[in-house]
Amino acid sequence: MTDGNDGKAHRDENTGDDLTEFSARLSAKQKAHHRSEHAPSRGSAIGMAFRLSTEMVAGLVVGGGMGWLLDRWLGTAPWFLLVFFVLGMAAGILNVFRTARELSAQAARQAEEDDG
Amino acid sequence: MAAENGHGAEGGLGVDPMHQFEITTIIPLEFGGIDASFTNSALWMVISAALITGLTVFGMSGRAMVPGRLQSVAELSYEFVANMIRDNVGSEGQRYFPFIFTLFMFVLFSNMVGMIPYSFTVTSHIIVTFGLAMVIFLGVTVIGFAKHGLRFFEFFVPKGIPVVLVPLLVVIEVISYLTRPVSLSVRLFANMMAGHTMLKVFAGFVVAFVGAGGALTGLAIGPLAFMVAFTGLEILVAFLQAYVFAILTCIYLNDALHMH
């Protein structure tokens, strides 16, 4: 309560110069706050590595699984498994590529924000 | 040797790091041959849901202009998710705010509640995370078809490629689309499980060193210090994984709404 009153009294005394100086300090603080608030999106290096590897493994698992199921259904073992395993690999690489592109775009945006 | 005694978790120095993930039945239930028992997993889900409800209902009950601590937390989480949706999906995404908010808070609270000793981490079981991921995947696909009709299939046809390559690339794109629920669920589950197992393994080292007695007792400080640092990291991971889970849902939703 008393804090609020003190702040008010102080504000009344402020001259124009003080205000411009204050707003400069405030915007610097806000920028720093903004930066720290968005830190999680950058993630740690291990998090990034983990994200990329799960994308790759997921591609292989889904591709291989689809091939295996098709083989079981059509009785054509092992042909669909072989083909879909390779396709799954391609899908995994595609996913890794997309995630990496997105991550680097994020990093570039972050760097821009930090500079600006 | 301790690790080999996987099932003999009780007693002795053999601290089984996987024991924490065991499902135990609290109230046995069965519906038409399906085991629907109320387990420790279900209990901790209910606790997470109750905590979230408590935070939002009691936090906002004051409706103060200058928020108190609890109200601040409730408002911050609202703004955090609202901003996430605005940045990643745009204004149309606000319709799906309740779903994404619920999802984010549930994953976050499950992860955080799991950090309490003797609790159970719901998200360390792949079936739970896969269930969540499947709901997102199916929901987003339905939204895509509802919004674009059959034109949604164009999503799987990359633009500007030779006609000969189209069939091959469509198959690859479809597989890539189908990996979404897998990578989404595996990421969350593996992070939570790996972290919690690691904590228990190092806790086991502390117990073993102290149990060894003599000069070796002093060595226990090493793994203990590591555990303190690692617990901090785990809390960060708990938040980060909830964030990643929610933001990927936003990205998938954006793909379904805007198709690119």
Q: What would your notes on this structure say?
A:
The complex is a heterodimer of chains A (116) and B (260). Chain A is built from five helices and no strands. Chain A has 116 residues and is an all-alpha fold. The longest helix of chain A has 37 residues, at 79-115. The radius of gyration of chain A is 27 Å and the shape is rod-shaped. The two termini of chain A are 38 Å apart. The model of chain A is unreliable at 1-11 and 37-42 (pLDDT under 50). The longest helix of chain B has 47 residues, at 166-212. In chain B, a hairpin with a 2-residue loop joins strand 2 and strand 3. Chain B is mainly alpha-helical and 260 residues long. Chain B starts with 24 loop residues before the first strand and ends with a helix. Residues 1-13 of chain B have low confidence and may be disordered.
The amount of beta strand of chain A, in percent, is under 5%
Mean pLDDT of chain B: 88
Quaternary structure state of the chains depicted:
heterodimer
Chain-averaged pLDDT of chain A: 78
Question: Radius of gyration of chain A, Cα only, in angstroms?
Answer: 27 Å
Strand order of the largest sheet of chain B: 1-4
Beta-strand portion of chain B reads under 5%
Choose one word for the global shape of chain B.
Answer: globular
Q: What is the chain-wise order of helices and strands of chain B?
A: EEEEHHHHHHH
Order of helices and strands of chain A: HHHHH
Helical content of chain A stands at over 70%
* Structure class of chain B: mainly alpha
Number of domains of chain B: 1
State the end-to-end CA separation of chain B.
53 Å
Uncertain spans of chain A, ≥5 residues at pLDDT below 50? 1-11, 37-42
Number of strands of chain A: 0
Q: What is the number of helices of chain B?
A: 7
What coarse outline of chain A follows from CA principal-axis ratios?
rod-shaped
Low-pLDDT runs of chain B: 1-13
Q: Helix count of chain A, per DSSP?
A: 5
Structural class call of chain A reads: mainly alpha
